[in-house]
What we know:
The protein is mainly alpha-helical.
Amino acid sequence: MAHRSQKIPSVTVILAVLIGIAAICFPAAAAPVQAALRTNLVQALLSEDLAEQTQLLQKLIGAEDSMIPQVLTAWRGGAVYVYETNQAKVPFILDAASDSEGRAKGIRVDDGEFLKGADGQPLVFTATELTSIDATSKLRKVIKTSLDLFALGNSNPKMRRDAVIKLGQELNADYLPHFEARVKLENDAEVVKALSEAIALTQVASEDAKIRVAAIQKLGEMRSINSLSFLKQLETDAKKTPDKFGAETIQAAHTSVLAIESYMAWGNLFGTAFRGLSLSAVLLVAALGLAITFGLMGVINMAHGEVMMVGAYTAYVTQNIFKSWFGASGGGFDSYFIAALACSFVVAGLVGLVLERGVIRFLYKRPLESLLATWGVSLLLQQLFRHIFGAANVQVSSPSWLSGSFVISDVLLAYNRIFVIGFAVFIVVGTYLLLTRTSLGLQIRAVMQNRAMASCVGVRTDRVNMMTFAYGSGLAGMAGACLSQIGNVGPGLGQNYIIDCFMVVVLGGVGNVFGTVSASLGVGMTDQILQPWLGAVMGKITVLAAIILFLQWRPAGIFVTRSRSLEG
């Protein structure tokens, strides 16, 4: 044991030495590359041959050196100067900071250090006393191209992709060789796709008919949404001057435009359907509790939407508490939404419990009075929350793990909406197990089928009413918390969804879980699909009219709940 313990420090020392050597050597390895790029820049500044300058500037494209674009911008604007000594000419630019007399220090282009005199002190200049390095119009064009293409070397793939998309839309043939060279080096799939699209889009402006037609066809095959406006304009111009473009160009442009528009139409349809599915998930969680309480008690609870609002504001308060504890970002803050869901269920459940004990239990079997009473409670809750939080909407931020989107064929699937859909599935399964696998669920089903008989065999119907109403309100609170991730949170939140919730309950069949699931999917997705065509108001009116017509044919809804109490 002693022999082994003596070897451990020696191994540690060796590892430490190796790590130290690596830390020293790898940064040093990048230094010659940066020095070579600066040398090319200095040679381009001092050269008077446009061809040589162009060749040297092209070598700078993609360099990860912040000094190079700064110098190129200054050169194009006539703000690069030369300091001559007995040994050499030193190009430099002026520092952004200046003294009270307008003098600034000179910064060497070759190493980025301050320009110093024979005494070792930094030299200061005024721009008026210096003569800048001249740049012809052709050279300024080359410099602009180099600056535009400089983003191709950005270390962030998203920045490279955005730069390529922007440059491709300029249809500048000067960029084409650089796109073709870069696509061979690129290893990010999104950037490669953007480069291929930019190459084809640039070739659309080619004078060669074969190249132009091939590029148009490739854009159609790629379903390039960014090129749609250019292809439409090309088709229009080609039809006006068919002799210039030819019939093949017109046909290729027309075919590609149709292919891209069809692709966009299907993408919009699937995107709308996905948004409708997420809305259906929220309606499902909210209407599930309403369906159970409505089927159990026969109470029309117009304050159910305000209970959703309670859940949404609970999520807002929970967010602020976590922000004060952990800051506005980080692992601690990111866990706030899980806590917000639990808090929303508890707080909304307590509100529902108070509502049931204080108001609703006195109004059983009196639907009109319960409707009016709960409507009054909803107005009271709205004014209370306006007084506490203000009339304006409040901001509920998404945690980092719910931010962003997953892209499939240019359709954005937001992570927060995916979570809401999965959460709704979890709630439906949990509610089904509660109703079919627990004693409380057995009592709830017994009371729904025959309240008098359930009371005769010892079921405490008042207690079942209280627990069921609290559970349904808790579900509404969690629905409100989910809504805070995909919509606005304000005092009028509940009014935007209460009608939809009742439509779901009535359409699905009062007190039927599977009917509620089916109806929420139908209402949510149909509403979202119709809104882009008919508008928000007409879309809802159309859905409501369709439900009314359906209920004329099937008054009990999609799934009929069979019970003696309902039939007798």
